[in-house]
């Protein structure tokens, strides 16, 4: 059962919290000096790298909002790998 106001597109875009967390870890690693591949993160998190790619694609447009103000960027948000 969908939550009120959740249309078909919202239902399709739902991701498990672990998938979103894995994508966020991947994004943070790409912005830091400790880069890790989607496969490396997926192996640890127990999700497929394709699942990380799909979740990354959803969070990528809001990347500027996801990092704390004091994050030490090695790679600027504008230079993160595109989804």
Automatic annotation (TrEMBL):
Biological processes annotated in GO: transcription initiation at RNA polymerase II promoter; transcription preinitiation complex assembly
A molecular function (GO) term: TBP-class protein binding
Keyword terms of this UniProt record: Initiation factor, Protein biosynthesis, Transcription, Transcription regulation
InterPro entries: Cyclin-like_sf (IPR036915), TFIIB (IPR000812), TFIIB_cyclin (IPR013150)
Pfam families in alphabetical order: TFIIB
Top-rank lineage group of the source organism: Eukaryota
Record-level GO cellular component terms: nucleus; transcription preinitiation complex
Every Transcription factor TFIIB cyclin-like domain range: 15-60
This protein's name: Putative transcription initiation factor IIB
